[in-house]
Amino acid sequence: MARVSYRELKRQAKSAHIHVKSTKYSPFDSSNVHADHKDMFAVVQSLGRTSYENYGHCPTNETPNKPWQLENKMRALKLVYLAVKCRKENRNEAGWRNEVESKLFERFDIEVACKRCRKRLWASEIESNPALSNSKTTSLEDRQRKRGLLDPGMSDLFSSRLEEPVCQAGANDAQNPKKEPDRIHGLQRTSNFERLLQQSYAHETNSRASPRSVEDVVKVSVNPDNGGDPLLFPFLVLEAKGEKAGENFEQMEIQTAFPIRNILKLQYDLLKTPGNTMDVPGGPLVWFFASRGEDWRVYAASVHEENGLPNYWINYLWGGSVTGRDEALQLILIVDYILDWARDIYRPNLLRQLKMLGLVDLSDGATVAVDPDVYSTDGRFQDWMRDQEIDPEEILDPNMSDTASIMMIEDAPTDPLGHLKTPLGIVRDAKHIESRIRALYLTRDNFQMFLLGFENPDTAMKCCRNILIALNRRCVVLKNEEVLNAVENSWTGNKRPMDDVRDPTTRVYAQFRISYYVDHGWNQIRELKYLAVADDARELLIDAAKYVRMVRGSKFNPPECSRPEILRTLDGYLQRNVEQDFTAALSRHTFLLDMVRMPVVTIGEDGAAHDDLSWRMVTSHDQDNKSPGITMQNVVDPIYAKAKYRSGQREPSEPYLRVSSRQDYESRSLAPETQDDRLNKALVYGAIQNAPHLPRGSDQKLCLYILDGQTEDIAPFSVVSILLAHLHRGRICGTLRKGKVYQTSRKGDDNRTAHEFKLNEVQKHLNVGHEILKSSVYEWIKLLTPSEVIPEGEGVASALEDITNTNVAQA
Q1: Are 529 and 439 in contact (CB under 8 A)?
Q2: What φ, ψ does residue 159 adopt, rounded to 5°?
Q3: 3-state SS class at 678
Q4: 6 near 250, Cβ under 8 Å?
Q5: How confident is the model over 47-89, as pLDDT tens digits?
Q6: What are the percentages of helix, strand and coil residues in the chain, rounded to 5?
Q7: Which of 47, 152, 379, 475 has a 20 to 30 Å separation from 574 between CA atoms?
Q8: 81 by DSSP, 3-state: which?
Q9: C-alpha gyration radius of the chain
Q10: Is 0.90 topped by the overall pTM?
Q11: What residues are paired with 594 via a beta bridge?
């Protein structure tokens, strides 16, 4: 910003009654701040004095009910890690925003509720004061008192806008500065807001005026209309600059002053709208964040009336560098507090004000009924899970996500087979398979953050020992981290940035395992799991495991595996045809990758052939329950599970985890054709083990897989014909559906010796009665067949026999 424009902007701000306090806020010099806001500012400054070392380690009566404190410390360490990384790489403004800002504000955008029971996963360290609510019958205090640890949090309440223009308030729009704040947070137009904004405005002063809705009377957004849902009543503004930017914080304050003024005026105008007699403790309030690389500041802006005119005051509350653990934690706690205030105080206050504008009898506006947009207000409170150990079998499948939990029987419109889905069975294209990577990769840079994820030092020590045991039992040596990146690119297509590659001379010890299975949603999965430790992190592991002498004195000389060798091995699995992968998924096959010395013939310098031994990578069925692959899996899965549990719908972003996936379809070769086209399809029965919290519409135990790729224009009658053909053959495929191949797998669950069975043997192999299974298929047929074909009341056996005989005769 040029110096002359800065001066002009400062002059304009003063003319618009915008005041930025030049000194840090003090309660002893705050005559322009309402008493209710003073209490909130005190909370922010109290959080701004939190010590990282003492946080969560000073036992109080509430300590058992605040397990999120450990996660907050982990988030702080991650923020420090990212800030230091940006500083080392001399990132520009976009780089800082992508790495640090997105992580700081992610709780505004993601669902923070338990995937099992929709209970809340976290709470603000200091919760909002119920006295700040304008409801005369508020239940906030009761809800906070009853709120269990997993009490449902937000669901689509907030939204944001990035670098979008702000409409200037007042009659002199053309002369006001045009600003595009880097980030604005506000409220989504949920069903509750929609209903209140569309109600008729009940306080028209002109009886002859045409009826208007509340939205016609009240301005609800500061952004121009783009044809979509507006960002309602913003409450947070952020302005960011790179570390090397020329602007200082004073210039950033003035630069953002007008957007802040416009948002405050939006709230102020609503308060002054005729018919709104609802009091808002403290009045309008907007939070302002400013960042310049690693340095952050937090401000609060409010309105103070002088001589009947609104004056807009911006107070500086907190500042610090997020390269420090104390400051990073403080900033995270402040953001959580603001989020809690926006959810429990600010949003309900707005709803009540809007309700008042549609009421003739103002006494009815004292409260808003149960808010359908907020789970925690509907009285469904549950206790915190007694066993805090998380079973990945029940919570990690992608179909268990928030989106899946609200889907009905119909599949997404993009699924060409969705119209064939019924409560008893579904149809899937076997060409679709998901290639996944789930990996733990420890380096010197991320090792301390890894340790912080454990409940106590003893648990961390045991895990470190298990990692060393797994690698000592079996692993290979890779030249450097770039080989791991090449593996991921080959398996899932995820390319990691070249500037993220560490020292190319640092070797990596790794163990790999491939698993095939069918998940809860009947999706085929081929999963590459690995445990990898960089050479410079192995010493740290040994120290953390606390048996230094034994390990350092032991022999550890694993074989080397070249990049071409491991890529050749993995490509062999990626090139398998549809039938091979399908069979492996039904049988839940697992494979361990290992190095063996194999005889080769080499040509010497003398031109003669010589017998030699060379290391080659091979794979073998990993069927032993005590194999090194199971040991490795027992390390990786729980760490991934807890990280996934903390992150809600999103995949974990911890730097020590590598998680990516790809849907493979187009390039896959088909299974060989059979003479009978109907037998290029496979009917599969699959029970679900230990999955009491399945989403609605995904509990079918029968699935018809199309193996020949012929999925276009499949009609229900075609499915009926295929099902009858399988019944006539008297055979059916079977599998066990679980979220993943996991350590709790019982003997026989994985690496099954058969996947197709005679109908009269299903009780033995699939634990379902022959007649029950046959009846289930019939009921599925009945759902796909018009009632005139199978009349109501006709016996199952006779109907099946008649239709089967007719169908087979026609074939």
Answers
A1: yes
A2: -150, 175
A3: helix
A4: no
A5: 999 999 888 764 444 444 565 787 888 889 999 999 999 999 8
A6: 40, 20, 40
A7: 475
A8: helix
A9: 31
A10: no
A11: 618
